[in-house]
Amino acid sequence: VEVPDQIQDVKDNEQCDENYIDDLQEFEQSDDDEHPDTEELQEMDKFSLIEGVYSFSVPVTASFFNTFGSSSEIAALAEKTGNKRLAKLLSAHIARNLVFSLDMRRDVYPGDEISAVFRIVPEHERKERKDMPDEIEILAMRYKSVRLKKELFAYRFKPSGYKFQTFFDEKGIAVEKMLKNSPVKEWIQITALLNDRRPRHDGIDYKAPVGTPVYAPWSGKVLRTNWNRKYNGLSIEAEINTNPKVYMILLHLDKLHIKNGDTFKAGDHIADVGNTGRSFAPHLHYQLQRERGRTRKIIDPIKFHGIVERSIPESDKPAFESLKKEMNALMDKS
Question: Structurally, how many domains does the chain consist of?
Fold first, then answer.
């Protein structure tokens, strides 16, 4: 029995994408600016390494997010940059890379250390760039974990053939997980995972430009479209042909290329990424569940799809190694 639309209210989180925390879905991504020579950087100010570029290193205190708000070094950077939201921005952007390797509630301990290099993105640049950067963008980061007894790295880099820059670890492996049969082939950043915020988040959010193609991961049939439009925007619910049967939810779309009752094949271009409904920036909300209605039984897309490891091509490794050396020098200096 299908649950009536009026019951599927945002208060019940019924197939409706959650709020983005403090408008932080303006996100980040970097341009292709040249990096300064390491020897030149050593002569620069502790905070402002080059114009608009800063580095810091702070110990974790009571919790990951409280660390940024309570740090005198971050407060000094906020004053220097003139950005009152800097603590929130840094914590959100850095957390997006850590969630693939850390449980942000269980693995973060006092005494861990967070280091990063970031830049302030000028307003004119934010308006012109196709990757829709936020007020800041992380260039590199390092997290020293007491519990895991290791260091986690992320470096922003654009390999040959990539449309957007992405983050790679110290071995040149992409930090973000790419799903097998992914609904999007190119995206700017994964900005939310399953259950990575409270009260809950029921899928994966892909930041991507409006009009980015959305493909069917499997064959299936459309059950309904565009319900709860105030919150979901243009949307699709479909039954997909897997064993066991699974339901797919796509939210905040710009265009639909299928309609109620249509069948589709794996790989079909079924919709385009949009910014409709309760959405603060263009993105796709992708959700899988075992049942319809209130129970739903949400599925983790990463576990259900499986992942494809992406690594930097051999031809790009010299450039990546040079970038790593420069970024590590900046983080060691802070």
Answer: 2
